Amino acid sequence: MTKPARIGGLLALAALIAAGTLWWGSGAWQLGDLPTRGFLRVTAFALGALACHGVAAWLRRRGR
Amino acid sequence: MSRPSLPIRLLDGMGLMLAVSAVLALLYYWDPTRVVIKRLAPKAATEFDRLPEGVASLPASERLTVRDAADVDHRRARLVTKIFGVPELPRDVMPQQVIRDVDKAPGAYKKCLSPTGPAVVHLLSRMDTIIMRGLACEAAYYRGWSNLAGIDELTGHMVKRWRNYAIAYFRPQRPNGRLILYQQGLAATYHDQHRVIQNWVAAGYTVAAMNMPGYGDNTCYDLDRYCADPPMADRFATDLAVTFLPPVVAVNYALAQQPFHGIAMIGVSSGAWVTLVSAAIDPRIDASFPVAGVLPLALLRGKEESARSIVEGLTEITGVLDLSVMAADRSGRSQVQVFNRFDRCCFNGPRPSLYADLLGKTAGRLGGRHRVLFDESHARHKISRWALARIMEVVESTGKEAP
Lengths: 64, 403
Description:
The complex is a heterodimer of chains A (64) and B (403). Chain A has helices spanning 3-25, 36-63. Chain A is elongated and about 50 Å long. Chain A is mainly α and 64 residues long. The longest helix of chain A has 28 residues, at 36-63. By secondary structure, chain B is of the alpha/beta class. Helix content of chain B is 35%, strand content 15%. Chain B has 14 helices and nine strands. Chain B has a nine-stranded mixed beta sheet, with helices on both faces. In chain B, helix 12 (320-326) runs parallel beside helix 13 (356-366). The longest helix of chain B has 24 residues, at 6-29. The chains are: A mainly alpha (64), B alpha/beta (403).
């Protein structure tokens, strides 16, 4: 795994877990400490990041 | 080790960018970090920490003029006359229609404009449908709430084929003898506060939730449901009555159902202005909480100016500061005004600090209590958990002996 992939994967996972915890912990709603809209944005970015790194890792394995 | 191919490097680079975006989005949306971002922004000190230029003291036009209980009674009678056409609060006016248990049997209603329940409505709906959310469409989503006995819909037709009011009356199974009137502001409905109302009901509070005129059920969009009855008396067919009658009707109806040992009113944004006036004219409201809303008219700026229309015709009789004191004019009555210091919308900054002490001292002389709080826990236009905790401390300590 390359360095950018490791950093990106870790950041995305950390953001995803933090967002989920904060959103759920403040009531899981739009007027909570982390609004639903924010939670969904973070989730979309993080899942996008993990998908990119996942596809890159798959291509790398296939090329070996 | 061989260098990865271009597509792999591109994908890893894009992944890293998206991961950084996820972290930035989290910092942007989470209330505590958003406050830090607001504080670090250029002009933050000017906007949130300092008084606006040219405002070193309270303008003469906004001075407190209410001095004693007789003054309060006199102003109250003039305000009530201006709003309702007679000097006595209409304590006998009841809803024209009461639909019991709309959560279980909503009755006939026109097509719902907002497609879904409370959790996702903001994400799927356009603004023009968000602000039209009706109780008949939403009530089923509240059916499973803890301690909820039922939701009643209280309605009245005020102006022919044009204006009505609709109040959602949440009855708890095990009531704690306290009533909360909740007044939503503009560009939203009380359905947006479903978590807050849910917690109140679970704790035993009876809740009467209201929207601003023209929002939610407060339109004749559903002509057959809300505007089929003959309109109420002509004296209620004014903008002022349309705005300020529903809280009076809510209290009238609630007291006809059971005695309460405490009545509180909480309003956010434009709802704060309705709360300010309602608490000033109706001494049955023991504690009132205008949140993110009220300022003396001379201190309004930008989009805050739209609030003038809510109190048009009233501030000539009694200024905003007088209205504040009138809500805390005797022992057992109190008002707490909450301001979001970093509010990204409006009513932010330190302007209320100009008169906070004065309001506290004047209300204290009359026997009541008045406080101004600055909420620094977020940068949004809302009631925060911090503010709600402060509000509920006062609500729980206010009122008469248990009925």
